[in-house]
Amino acid sequence: MRMMLVAFVAMIGATSAAAADSETWGKEWSVYRLFLNEPACGVAPDVNKCIKVLDRWRRDFMWATDPHWRNPYAGQRNVAICLAEGCDGEVKKNPVLACGWSRVVLLAGHPEIVEEDFQRERTYCGALKTPIEKDTATAQAQRLIRLLSSQ
Fold it and tell me: Which residues form the signal peptide (predicted)?
């Protein structure tokens, strides 16, 4: 009986931790959703295109933030690229977060890392002009790595 109680308490703890992770990434997604140039597809001039862009951005964010999903490496790389280059004008550029995500790609320990990943980090982080931007990008990368590690 005691073993069943211990197992039940452990199961509740694991479920609570998973719910907290889900809640954390849900809040994070609510911020990243706003990086789309047309975040409200219902009023966009081309609703179908807007929905495709939203789906791709959501997919990349999900890949980037869920280690149990298909490909966190590709998601993290794609999020960094979109934040740096704007994904053909579909995503608002954010150089600080682009640098932070490019560092996440390198720090996450993916075996797929290639030279282009190092080059992107040098380019995106080298484009930051002030020490505070560089410090903020580093802090964002550390924060994201902590969130990813807690899963």
Answer: 1-19
SS3 of the chain: helix, strand, coil, percent, to 5: 75, 0, 25
pLDDT one-digit tens code per residue, 116-151: 999 999 999 999 999 999 999 999 999 999 988 877
Report yes or no: 120 and 84 within 8 Å, Cβ to Cβ.
yes
Name the one residue in this structure whose structure tokens are 């990434």: 25
- How many domains is the chain built from? 1
Domain residue limits at 52: 2-149
Cα-based angle 10, 16, 22 (whole degrees, multiple of 5): 140
Q: Which two tokens stand for residue 132?
A: 């505070």
Give CA–CA dist 134/22, Å, rounded: 29
Residue with tokens 């580093």: 138
> Against a cut of 0.70, is the pTM above it?
yes
- Main-chain dihedrals φ then ψ at residue 91, nearest 5 degrees: -125, 140
